[in-house]
Amino acid sequence: MRRIAIWFFLLNKRLFKKGSFLMILCAVPLLVAGMRLAARQESGIVTIALCRTDPSDELSAEIVDGLLDDGNVLRYVICETPEEARDLVERFQADAAWIFPENLALRLGESAARKRVRPVVTVVEREDSIPLAFSREILTSALYPFFSYAVYEDYVRDDLGLAAEDEELSKAYERLKADGTLFQVVYFDGSATEKSSYLLAPLRGILALWLVLCGFAASLYYMQDERRGTFSWMPIKHRLWLAFGFHGVVLADAAAALLIACRLSGVFTVWYREVIHAALFTGCVLVFCNLVRLLCGTPERLGCCIPILLMGMAAVCPVFINVDRFRPLQYLLPPFYYLKATHSTYHVYLMAAYLLVGTGLCVLVSGWKNALHK
């Protein structure tokens, strides 16, 4: 154990003298800091220009304030006049404009009295799209509670003919109104989803790709040392385990940085689960990078394959979006298991199986190449 500890220390000391390795490690704090800074800024999938035709209208002010308080997905811009809001859309500075009319409560009351849903807010858009359709659902959800109360009030007063004070009607409505949300989204492990900035959603996946990049960097460092004859003292049949140890030193540093980055970025779950997942994922990356190294054979070929593999992982693995049709390819890539294992114990077992199978393949390919060299 003392010899292993000394070897680990000396390899680490040697690694930290490499400028390229320091640059890769420094990319993590810069990435996390940049994404957290971007998440604090005003952002959204679309920009909406909000305009209240009558600034003194209390109901439109309440709705606009509610939209601004919950503006995590949409970005809102306040306009003084309808012309200004339309102009922002025409000049491509806003994707849509929502113009609230004068006396919004009266408009909702008239719509409720007619027993039909009628337009009450003017929406100006250059063209329709999926994000804009989603934004209109948010507008509808903001208007619906007030329309619902108008329907209730009209039914009590006109259909039932009951004479009641406004305060009495409001208390009865609040008493019967269901609190909370109709649906609760939970993961397979029972943990509930947490509200966070959508900009931070792909951060764990980006960090997973970064760890794979560290594994490939370790492969390049090892192949360069092997070409220089640094490991000539080690018999060829044992060099696979030497390569595993070499990769393990690099990936141990990278895994520690990954855990710290997850903790600082706010995507951390439970510490013991994160440590287990990171350890298994590190092992999977170790065997994957070594298998690719053995198949490529030279640093030049491996260097050409690295960007292709990383871009393929970003597209196939659920880093930004999850596409089921890529599932057969996903099973070949370590980031898929790590990202799925965050809320699925089943994929933790699959990650352990991947590690065992990957080790066996590395042994077979290494033995086959050693036999060719004899």
How would you describe this structure to a colleague?
There is one protein chain. The protein is mostly helical and 374 residues long. Helix content is 66%, strand content 5%. The chain has 14 helices and four strands. It has a four-stranded mixed beta sheet with strand order 2-1-3-4, sandwiched between helices. Helix 3 (58-69) links the parallel strand 1 (47-52) and strand 2. The longest helix has 30 residues, at 130-159. It is elongated, with a radius of gyration of 29 Å.
Write the layout of secondary structure elements.
Layout: H1 2-15, H2 19-40, E1 47-52, H3 58-69, E2 75-79, H4 82-90, E3 96-100, H5 104-113, E4 122-125, H6 130-159, H7 166-176, H8 203-228, H9 239-265, H10 271-296, H11 299-316, H12 327-330, H13 334-341, H14 345-373
Parallel strand pairs: 1-2, 1-3
Antiparallel strand pairs: 3-4
Descriptive labels:
66% helix; mainly alpha; four-stranded mixed β-sheet; 374 residues; 14 helices
Q: What profile does the largest beta sheet have? A: 4 strands, mixed
**Average pLDDT level:** 83
Please provide the ordered H/E string of secondary-structure elements: HHEHEHEHEHHHHHHHHH
Helix residue percentage: 55-70%
The radius of gyration computed from the alpha-carbon positions, rounded to a whole number of angstroms, is 29 Å
- Would you identify the regions where 5 or more consecutive residues have pLDDT less than 50? none
Question: How many beta-strand segments?
Answer: 4
Biggest sheet strand order reads: 2-1-3-4
Shape descriptor? elongated
Distance between the termini: 33 Å
Strand content: 5-15%
Tally of contiguous helical segments:
14
* Alpha-beta content class: mainly alpha
